[in-house]
Amino acid sequence: MRYALLLAPLALAACQSPTKPGNDATANANADAAAQAQPVWLTATDHANVKGAYYKADNPKAVILLFHQAGSSKDEYATIGPKLVAAGYSAMAIDQRSGGDMFGTNETVTHLPKDRKSGMIDAQKDMEGAIHWALPMGKPIILWGSSYSASLVIPLANAYPSQVKAVLSFSPGEYFDDKHMIARDAGWLTQPIFITDAGTPDEVAKAKAIAAKVPGGRATVYTPEHGVHGSSTLIEAKNPQGAAANWDAVMAFLKKVAP
Length: 259
Fold this sequence. Notes:
Blueprint lengths: L26 H8 L3 E6 L5 E7 L7 E4 L13 H7 L3 E5 L12 H5 L12 H11 L6 E6 L1 H12 L4 E7 L10 H6 L6 E4 L4 H11 L7 E4 L20 H15 L2
Parallel strand pairs: 3-4, 3-5, 5-6, 6-7, 7-8
Antiparallel strand pairs: 1-2, 2-4
Helix pairs in contact: 1-2
């Protein structure tokens, strides 16, 4: 098949919608409100329960779906989500079934039945469930991935060409059994994509190899002066020398694709 994803009907509904908070008057107030993300349970395409943290902006420009790296959880985005809200974007960070406690408890892993497959490739079912959760909002959807999920957002975007507005990919690579899958899928991408790396030779090579396959000049490649693996490149505690500059590059891309 052209895409690695097995598509479920677009009508699949989330099992629980978040409770709407009160409106905020300013971007700063938005950011303060977002510091406490709303807990949400949504449904993967194989009907597994997936835990999310919803950062809500008033009248958002887009909804950004945040996917974590291996061994991690939605808490990878505890400092990133509020900054996105302050910039005018709502965001949903989820616990994928392939993850752990690197930043905090992964509640999807905790509650996953033993008969469910929990490899990295299986996490695409959780990620696709997040798209189904966001569709009823009627806002542009932006996919954001970290490490292995930075790779999976590419075939996922291909599977939803009309619904997904843009893609951000932090430290992508060929992390799966098919060592050509992501580059192959990159060749079919119709959305603009921001691709970044940790600045190390191996990550630079992986990012450039995938970006080179993206047609039509749609790939923005950013190699930081100071970077770390995955979305942690934006976390000051993880990357004190480079986080601010790397945020500037991300915001320049977001302003272009979802002003």
